[in-house]
Amino acid sequence: MRVTYPHCAGIDIHKKSMTVCIFADEGNGSQPVYYKRSFDTHTTGIQEMTTWLQEHRVSEVGMEATGVYWKPVWNALEGSYGLHLCNPEHIRAIPGAKTDLRDGTRVADLLVPLHFDSARKWQKS
After folding, report:
1. Whole-structure pTM value
2. CA-CA distance, 48 to 33, in Å (whole number)?
């Protein structure tokens, strides 16, 4: 697999929590590593997640467009990361059982070779 983003993250966002999966490929021939962690969706949780993403040198972040829950996370990350919004139907179409940890991993896996297009900024009305 051609790696477009060697340090990227996928986020599965819900009302009260989000599951984040970081894909890290050091490019030295070793296997890529996945780091997974859950955070609350309130301001402190988003700040903790941002610090964690920085510690892992993440440059690109993909997330599911789940209701309106993605919008505060998007707004907090905008300007610091390349952001990509994934249609939840694309995640559901991937074979296997659906779980929060798996969904974050699936978003990261789609982002690694860039299998979905970059999102346009959500416009406030």
Report:
1. 0.74
2. 21
